[in-house]
C-alpha cells in the first residue's frame, strides 16, 4: 500500500470505527517511526550522507532560525498564546510532532496547547503528502532538489519519507539524511525554549539519530551487513507505511475541531513561508 493510501485508510478508521488504542497511538506510532528511520539508514552510504548533509546545512540553519522568529512575530500578530505559537513554530522549524513532544515539557505546556499544536502539524503533514510529489513533478525538480525540499519544508519525518518515496529512491535517501540532520536541532531549540520561557524542564535527546548514523556506517563498512540491507530497508518502508496509517487513525474529529482558526493560520503561514523560500533557494 502506498503512503497516501495508508494515511487515508487511517483517517477512514478514525472517522468510522474509531481507533481502539487512541490514547496510546501517538507513542506507538512515534516509536515505529523512529525504528523505521533507523532501518532506512541501512540503505544509505556514508559518502552520500555526508554529501547531502554538507550541501543542505546552510538551508537548514537559515530555515530553522527564520521559522522560529517568524512564529514568534506572527503568533503575537494573531494574538495567539505564546506557548502554542512557539510549539507550532518549533514543529514547523524542526521535525513536527517529535519537536513538539520534546519542547512541550521544557516550556511546561498544557495538554490542550500540545494537542492543538500536534493537530496543526498533522493536518499540514497530511496535505504535504499529496501536494509535494505533485508539485515536484510539475516543476521538474531533480531527485536531489525534491529530497532537500521535502526534508526542510515538510514537518514530520513520516510525511517527509512518504512524499520522497513517491518521487524516487534517490529523493528518499537525500530527504532522510537531511531530515535527521534537521532533527538534531531539537536539542538546541529545546534549550532556547527553556531560556525563553524561563522554565526548568528537561531536554529529551533523540536517540534514534545516533542509531541511524550507526546503521549508515554498518551498511558502508561492514560487508556482511550489505547482504541484508535491502531486506531491512524494505521492512523499514513497510514500517513507515504502517506509521502513516496509525497517524491517520489518530486524527479523530474532536481532535481536529479543537485546533482553531488562529493556530491553523499560524501553521499555514509558517509552512508557506518555509516551503516557498526553500523552493526558490533550491531552484534559482
Automatic annotation (TrEMBL):
Membrane topology: Multi-pass membrane protein
GO cellular component: plasma membrane
Transmembrane segments: 32-50, 57-78, 84-107, 114-134, 203-222, 234-253, 259-282
Keywords, sorted A to Z: Cell membrane, Membrane, Transmembrane, Transmembrane helix
Top-rank taxon, per record: Bacteria
Subcellular localization, as worded in the UniProt entry: Cell membrane
Family under the similarity heading: Belongs to the UPF0324 family.
PANTHER family: INNER MEMBRANE PROTEIN YEIH-RELATED (PTHR30106), UPF0324 MEMBRANE PROTEIN FN0533 (PTHR30106:SF1)
Protein name: Membrane protein
Amino acid at each position: 500500500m502506498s503512503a497516501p493510501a495508508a494515511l487515508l485508510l487511517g483517517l477512514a478508521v478514525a472517522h468510522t470505527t474509531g481507533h481502539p488504542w487512541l490514547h496510546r497511538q501517538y507513542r506507538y506510532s512515534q516509536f515505529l517511526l523512529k525504528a523505521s528511520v533507523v532501518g532506512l539508514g541501512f540503505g544509505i552510504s556514508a559518502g552520500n550522507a555526508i554529501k547531502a548533509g554538507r550541501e543542505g546545512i546552510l538551508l537548514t540553519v537559515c530555515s530553522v532560525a527564520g521559522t522560529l522568529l517568524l512564529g514568534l512575530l506572527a503568533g503575537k500578530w494573531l494574538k495567539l498564546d505564546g506557548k502554542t505559537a512557539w510549539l507550532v513554530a518549533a514543529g514547523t522549524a524542526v521535525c513536527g510532532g517529535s519537536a513538539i513532544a520534546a519542547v512541550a515539557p521544557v516550556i511546561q505546556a498544557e495538554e490542550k496547547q500540545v494537542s492543538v499544536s500536534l493537530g496543526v502539524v498533522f493536518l499540514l503533514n497530511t496535505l504535504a503528502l499529496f501536494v509535494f510529489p505533485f508539485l515536484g513533478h510539475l516543476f521538474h525538480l531533480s531527485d536531489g532538489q525534491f529530497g532537500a525540499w521535502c526534508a526542510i519544508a515538510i514537518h514530520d519525518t513520516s510525511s517527509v519519507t512518504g512524499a520522497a518515496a513517491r518521487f524516487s529512491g534517490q529523493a528518499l535517501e537525500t530527504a532522510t539524511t537531511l531530515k535527521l540532520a534537521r532533527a538534531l536541532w531539537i536539542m538546541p531549540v529545546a534549550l532556547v525554549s527553556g531560556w525563553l520561557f524561563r522554565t526548568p524542564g528537561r531536554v529529551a535527546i533523540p536517540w534514534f539519530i545516533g542509531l541511524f548514523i550507526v546503521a549508515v556506517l554498518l551498511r558502508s563498512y561492514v560487508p556482511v551487513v550489505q547482504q541484508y540491507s535491502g531486506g531491512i530497508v524494505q521492512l523499514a518502508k513497510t514500517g513507515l507505511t504502517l506509521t502513516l496509517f496509525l497517524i491517520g487513525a489518530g486524527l479523530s474529529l474532536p481532535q481536529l475541531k479543537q485546533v482553531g482558526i488562529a493556530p491553523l493560520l499560524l501553521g499555514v503561514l509558517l509552512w508557506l513561508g518555509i516551503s516557498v523560500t526553500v523552493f526558490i533557494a533550491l531552484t534559482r
